[in-house]
Specification:
Protein name: N-acetyltransferase domain-containing protein
Largest sheet: 8 strands, mixed
Organism: Porphyridium purpureum
Radius of gyration: 18 Å
GO molecular function: acyltransferase activity, transferring groups other than amino-acyl groups
Strand content: 15-25%
CATH superfamily: Gcn5-related N-acetyltransferase (GNAT)
Oligomer: single chain
Number of domains: 1
Pfam family, one: Acetyltransf_7
Domain N-acetyltransferase: 77-229
Structural class: alpha+beta
């Protein structure tokens, strides 16, 4: 397996990565709320039709989001040989805090895409969820020595493994390789997850829970865990 780390996120990876991420997050509580609202499931189409619509919207959303970061210098995934080509088997974004925010025109373009595919309600709920996560993570970062004084750090996002390869240690090996480079940079790593089983997974890689705070009821009301991994030269 070839681990692709400390490399720009390439345009040639975006579509495959976005589809992989969208399928993985299709049933996540955060995106269920974003797509349908707190009581949205009662008014949703039948399960199969709803899932296909949701998949289309999420794939569009993640493709647009990843294209915003195309060219950014981030740790971005792992590949394995597959029928004379490279196949993306694991994807994640380990994003430095120094990466510049997207240009305003890109954000406007993304907003229009969301409204076209998902409606105004989807855009509004996404903004509210995004604002809460960003605000709360800033509180967690402020409580960390070094980062609280404006020092650099990394944020882990979009961690997924191909379904047929899950449970084989692929995610652990890929992420561990990238985290070794984070250690070499002497940077802490922050993340947020809504699944308790993920807390156990990340704990094995050196993360600890910094804040266990449920998302407010008016934007979904599901569990959430902010975690941090201290850098170490001795791992």
């Amino acid at each position: 397996m070839e681990v692709w780390s400390a490399s720009p996120l390439g345009e040639d990876v975006v579509d495959d990565a976005a589809d992989l991420v969208a399928d993985a997050f299709l049933e996540s509580p955060a995106y269920k709320y974003i797509l349908h609202g707190v009581a949205g499931h009662a008014r949703a189409p039948p399960a199969r039709a709803r899932r296909e619509r949701d998949r289309v919207v999420l794939r569009m959303l993640f493709r647009a989001n990843l294209r915003v970061h195309a060219g950014d210098r981030i740790f971005s995934g792992a590949f394995a040989p597959h029928e004379h080509a490279r196949r993306l088997v694991c994807f994640f974004m380990l994003r430095p805090s120094s990466v510049a925010p997207p240009k305003i025109w890109r954000e406007l373009w993304l907003a229009l895409q969301i409204v076209w595919y998902g409606g105004v309600g989807t855009l509004w709920r996404l903004i509210r969820v995004k604002n809460w996560f960003e605000s709360t993570q800033k509180q967690v970062v402020r409580g960390y020595p070094g980062a609280s004084r404006g020092g650099p750090y990394l944020t882990l996002e979009r961690m997924v493994v191909r379904p047929e390869l899950q449970g084989q240690g692929v995610g652990s090996r890929c992420l561990a390789a990238a985290l070794q480079e984070a250690d070499a940079l002497q940077l802490p790593v922050f993340l947020a997850t809504q699944e308790e089983r993920n807390v156990e997974f990340y704990s094995r890689l050196g993360f600890r829970v910094a804040l266990a705070e449920p998302v407010p009821l008016d934007i979904g009301g599901y569990p959430n865990f902010f975690m941090v991994r201290d850098h170490s030269q001795d791992r």
